[in-house]
Amino acid sequence: MRPVPIATLSTKRLWLREPDPSDIREMTELANDRDVAVRLGTMPHPYTDNDARLFFSRFHSERSSWAICLGTGGPFAGIISLKPEADERVAGLGYWLGQRYWGRGYATEAAEAVVGYASSLRLHNRLISGYYADNEPSGRVLRKVGFAETGRSKRFSGLRCEDVDYVEMARDLLS
Predict the structure, then answer these.
(1) CATH architecture of the domain with range 9-128
(2) How many Cα atoms occupy the beta-carbon half-sphere of 161 within 13 Å?
């Protein structure tokens, strides 16, 4: 299944828009942080301009991604994405923010906007996501936007080079 169409979304404090190659400098600066990369399974570290270019040439075509910006035209703060799963009724929600934007509710606000948008499109019955068990702030974000734990497993962490405890989450969109 193709990714969902990307519409510009806005919230009280955020502007979510299609990422653009002009974001490469800020994306590289924010993603090139070990504390960000260790919370994500596949983000390379160090993160370079070439990694950002790979995002635009490959990953961006596999999923619907939004640049999380502070206000209209404001600074780039991170990425939030929906990725269609093999079962086309399911999509995966993923996100990251630069460390300087943590703890301000931006991830929750962006997730609420994208979950609401996904729900309005009625393309998926369920969203899935998850987090490494030692990243409880991400679990709080998911719970705030209606996700519930569905299981626990081990997931490989590229930066840690080992399997790490992982909490699986899901949210039904259609009744």
Answers:
(1) 3-Layer(aba) Sandwich (3.40)
(2) 1
